[in-house]
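TASK: fixed-backbone design
INPUT:
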């Protein structure tokens, strides 16, 4: 409608015989200014591009976290380990997140209270998944991917740092407790 209104003003002006008088020039300038100002009243593009940039930054951070975590594949398991010399599960997530200035406790039970809860069907790369026995957290893993094929995580187990599809694992799937997003809060 704004375009049609602008067109109507311009059509009206062209039908009027324009003279070389200052009044007709003023009138034409006034009509063009009004029609231009109405057609420009839309949402500022900066707001939309900022939102896309924030989403893009979040996705990039999540990808960077997973890529860094994957560099630790094969590192041996070490009880209470928090370095590439050896990791336990929470020491691994602590080490990875520390690289990105995301502060986590080195304990899986304490990590289970950090960030915000997230439904399992919505987990993304970089989220944490906690595993429970008798409603008590005993293990944590970092989400690599969540597709129709299942949730893949990277974690430190007695096999060292490995990637598992927990949705298809007879051992891990029944022990999945809940997920937490600690990346978005960063």
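OUTPUT:
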């Amino acid at each position: 409608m704004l375009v049609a209104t602008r067109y109507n003003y311009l059509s009206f002006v062209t039908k009027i015989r324009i003279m070389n008088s200052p009044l007709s020039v003023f009138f034409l300038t006034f009509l063009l200014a009004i029609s231009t100002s109405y057609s420009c009243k839309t949402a500022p593009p900066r707001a939309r591009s900022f939102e896309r940039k924030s989403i893009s930054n979040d996705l990039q951070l999540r990808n960077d976290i997973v890529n860094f975590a994957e560099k630790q594949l094969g590192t041996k398991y070490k009880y209470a380990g928090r370095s590439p010399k050896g990791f336990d599960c929470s020491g691994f997530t602590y080490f990875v997140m520390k690289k990105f200035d995301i502060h986590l406790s080195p304990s899986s039970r304490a990590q289970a209270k950090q960030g915000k809860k997230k439904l399992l069907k919505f987990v993304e790369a970089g989220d944490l998944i906690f595993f429970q026995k008798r409603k008590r957290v005993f293990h944590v893993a970092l989400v690599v991917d969540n597709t129709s094929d299942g949730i893949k995580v990277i974690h430190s187990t007695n096999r060292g740092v490995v990637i598992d599809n927990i949705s298809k694992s007879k051992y891990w799937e029944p022990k999945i407790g809940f997920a937490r997003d600690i990346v978005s809060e960063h």
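COMMENT: The domain at 55-181 is CATH 3.90.1720.10 (endopeptidase fold (from Nostoc punctiforme)).
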